[in-house]
Amino acid sequence: MTDLLASDRLFFDYQTRSRRRDANSDWTLRDIAVTIPAGSTVGVVGESGSGKSTLVRLLCGLLTPSKGEITFDGRSVKDWLSEDRLEFHRRNQIVFQSPASSLDPRLRIKTSLSEPTRALERRKPDPAELSSWLKDVGLSGDVLSRYPHQLSGGQLQRIAVARALSVRPDVLYADEPTSALDVSVQAQVLNLLMGLKQRHGLTLVLVSHDLAVVARVCEQVVVLKDGQVVEAGQTVEVMTDPKTAYTRTLVEASRATSLARF
Amino acid sequence: MLEIEDLNISIGAHQIVSLEHLSIPAGRRLGLVGESGSGKTMTAMSIIGLLPREAVVTGSIKFSGVEMVNRPERELSNFRGSEIGTIFQDPLRALNPTMRVGKQVGEALRLHNTVPNKGVKQRTVELLDQVQLPDSAALARRYPHQLSGGQQQRVLIAMAIACNPKLLIADEPTTALDVTVQKEILELLARLSAERGMAVLFVSHDLGVIQSISDHVAVLYGGSLVETGPTDQIVGSPRHRYTEALINVNPGHPEDIAASLGKPLITIKGSVPPLGAFLSGCRFRGRCPHEVDTCATEPPITEMPDAHSFKCWNPVPTTISLAPGEAGLAKESP
Fold it and tell me: Do A41 and B271 touch (CB under 8 A)?
């Protein structure tokens, strides 16, 4: 597998460099090197404030690194954004944690759903396309004329996924896509993501605080702590034989509070 | 110590909760589990009378023999914080942002006159020590926003146990916390409960968390208590089809990661219906894969040994083989 995405010596801080007093301390992300092969499923785990969401926002071009380089499909993301911004965003799509706040409450579903196509492909999708996108995520065309408040959290998250996939991206980033959902709906959404990944040959980057979820869905895992990668590798290896004390603590805490069947 | 009988909570025309019987003996840790909209928080809050004004409550909730239902507000507030402590999901919202945390813990002590005014300060520090906060004397002088989420929740626990309550109601207390902090808080609650003989009503949507803290579990769906019993039995051999489904959908901690990786998870058909849209009879009807014709009528309560009971017409067969004719719809005798 070739690497679709790679970052090397990546630094990021939410403060601009001129306001930084000490050049070496308090980076939100520090010296991050990650590689994401095409077609893989990668989990990004860590506690709150570890920088997992920040990392994903950098990879998909929503934030700009303070230092270091990210390459996507053999080309620097900086170049992508200055030369082919729309194409880069078309190929890198993201779904957020709260589906209710990622859809505009004043827009009908069909309007929200057409937005990426309008913005990135400069055209208006026809009704048949809209219905087929919804069908892909297991929803019927009935919801097109509805408003977000009329739908359940699970339905809204499916719409958010359909919207992201409407522009046929290569990479789908999902930032805690199931944390706001009930456990029964979580299983449905995770199955949907795994199925879509297979059908469309997507690369899936899943941010989650829940190791049990990552262990079910992701082949590879990146463990972040305080803005640094503490461990990365195959999920099976990282979770069964953690190389660092921090990952071990994380896995043990997850095991202690996860459901154990008899 | 806590006995709930025929509790009905309704708002307008909607019945939110309908519980036949639920009890918590002194010192027991009961986990109340269910999805959003199952009525678990309403049930917990009805004990201390913290329900929306429109809610109509009938039935009986006896706490240490005292009837709590429709008791005047002034009398209820004597129970809240003294006999019954409460902690909530979001500690930052439960704390006063303009008051030092030590003073807030002291407030609970002063309000219920547990210790003489002179002793409040010392007792506050003792309480902060008991919830394992580091450097408690200095920490008491901080404001809530200066503490981490885990520390805030510990302060809230210190306030809740300040007056030595007999019952602690914990409503999703670890949902907003990281997994490592979650584990610490659960261990702290289990220890405090054991040391003080304090009963805990632990409300959560997460069966894994419930399993790690509770010795008994009550499963709610659509405001109805579908199954209750010892935690090991509920998780190990559930009888109600909803309990079975709830266990199956939980990703759990996979023992064989390589084998389960990428495999679809078991799901429950559809989602929890909105308020007022539950079908009559068994509430799980319409989503249950094992539905039979009788499910349209209210299922009876089947009692089993060890205070394990469930309400299902077509329950999960037990691993212990029953005599012919006893299986299926037969009602086991306790």
Answer: no
